[in-house]
Amino acid sequence: MADDERDARRGLACAVEAGDSRLPTVLEEVGPVDAWRGLVATTMESPWGARAKRVDLEALRAAEAACGARFVIPSDDEWPQRLQSLRGCKEVQGMTGEPVGLWVRGQAPLAEVVERSVAIVGSRAATALGERVASDLAAELASAGVTVVSGGAYGVDAAAHRGALAVAGTTVAFLAGGPAHEYPRGHASLLQQIAATGLVVSEQPPGEVPSRLRFLSRNRLIAASSLGTVVVEAAARSGARNTSTWARECGRPVMAVPGPVTSATSFTPHQLIREADAVLVTCAEHVLTEVGPLRPERESEGGAQGQPRLLDMLVPADAAVYEALPSRGARPVGELALRAGVAVPACLGALQRLAEMGLAEPATGGRWRLGRAQDRPLLPREAAAGVPRRGVPRQGREHGA
Fold first, then answer.
1. Do residues 318 and 355 lie in contact, with contact meaning Cβ atoms separated by under 8 Å?
2. Over the stretch 176-232, which tens digit does the pLDDT of each residue have?
3. Residue 40 C-beta-side C-alpha neighbours within 13 Å
4. What is the pLDDT of residues 295-319, one digit of tens each?
5. Burial group, residue 211, by CB count within 10 angstroms (0-12, 13-18, 19+)
6. Helix or strand or coil: residue 331?
7. Cis status, amide bond into 109, omega within 30 of 0
8. What is the pTM of this model?
9. Residue 222 burial (C-beta neighbours within 10 Å; 0-12, 13-18, 19+)
């Protein structure tokens, strides 16, 4: 039966996109084995069923062996119990739920490695100062016996991984693609080094490539597996903000390192600190104080959940369209749809909803640009309604197309 469950979870991980908020209910009602068998046997037209019928479990097991990965499930001893905090967790951008399984590369048991871990996340376009801060902080934590968790991306992520490796510490990279998909290509050597001395982990099966939504679903694993999350440099629309939201919803402390007020990459850390969504930290000692015995009540009480935020209300498709809007100027609907990976009619619908929230607005020539609203806490009436409207008054603002 154990093998049946493992294969069922393998299949479900291939058929259902990671973080799909509908899957936890199905698993709770019928369990993974019956859920998988039902998908394979269904004659109804559905994306899950269509993808399930294309899954070759034997080939999948062979692909795991070829890339040196193992498939870990919740009943395994090395499954991190901390991931259970995702069960029943409030949706963030339409995603939630404990993963059905994880592909792991590396020799050490996953649960043991992340038992005492801290996530360090931040901007891909980090400054030299941001990379130095992330590297030094990771090295200090690793020297104190703390595992450094991050996402393997350029910028802050890479600096954090390298900082831990530089002092022979342990680091874990959670990927948005399959366990052997070394993305970005420039980090092939780094990810191989991480797998050799620490762990490379993915919710995606071997052969799968990253996507915008998979980066977002990956973020919940970084946050949930760690004792706390530190944000080092992140612009206004950084994925690090999404990771910090997941950490807060999972009951983990969120910390942020301040930066120069003139730097765009200081926006998110400063906003988190200003709105009391994060504690200011500048060194490993500060971080250890936040995740140590002085703060045990946060996780035991289910977390001090912060106020819902505007961007957290977006469903995945709307979030993808919002991310496709340029920082300056405007783009045609067709290009936005292409960048977001959605059909043009769906893109138009998303743009209308974003416009109602003040997050997008039409420009000349059928193009669209960013609206004036930025990420912010929801007002009580907005949170109660569940559908935020215009973020700020639109008078008195001039935009260039």
1. no
2. 999 988 788 889 999 999 999 999 999 999 999 998 899 999 999 999 999 999 999
3. 17
4. 434 443 444 445 567 777 888 889 8
5. middle
6. strand
7. no
8. 0.77
9. buried
